[in-house]
Specification:
Layout: H1 2-49, E1 56-60, E2 63-67, E3 103-104, E4 111-112, H2 115-130
Antiparallel strand pairs: 1-2, 3-4
């Protein structure tokens, strides 16, 4: 009889311990959840309180975020522009030649595409200097 009574008491005590742990765990979880909700509300309030001309920069391990105010809009420095690199090549300076240049005259630094254009330019420059 006493053994059965002792067993029942130990079972009841074990049940109370388990239930007590569950209730303390629930209390802890509720506290954490409540704190997270409070933090979220604080963030919303602080975001509303920021001036309309404030730019926010948030750096975290996964990346950086830049936030611009709605009044300001997206800055034009971030607009994409067509890439023009490399710039288009100059055309040959030879008479009646529209080819892109490959060489430069060492003396006059003129753009040239071939030996034929080089000779034509040299003849033209020679004729100008003798006149």
């Amino acid at each position: 009889m006493q053994v059965e009574k002792a067993n029942r008491e130990s079972e009841a005590e074990a049940i109370r311990k388990i239930l007590g742990q569950d209730s303390s765990r629930k209390k802890r979880e509720e506290k954490i959840k409540k704190r997270q909700e409070e933090l979220a509300q604080e963030k919303v309030v602080s975001a509303q309180m920021l001036a309309s001309n404030t730019i926010r920069l948030v750096m975290v391990p996964i990346g950086t975020t830049v936030t611009f105010p709605r009044d300001m809009g997206f800055p034009s420095i971030f607009d994409s522009k067509p890439s023009s690199y490399p710039p288009p090549r100059e055309n040959c300076a030879g008479p009646l030649c529209a080819n892109p240049y490959k060489y430069r005259d060492s003396k006059w630094k003129l753009p040239l595409c071939s030996l034929r254009c080089y000779k034509a330019i040299q003849e033209h420059l020679l004729a100008e200097t003798t006149c």
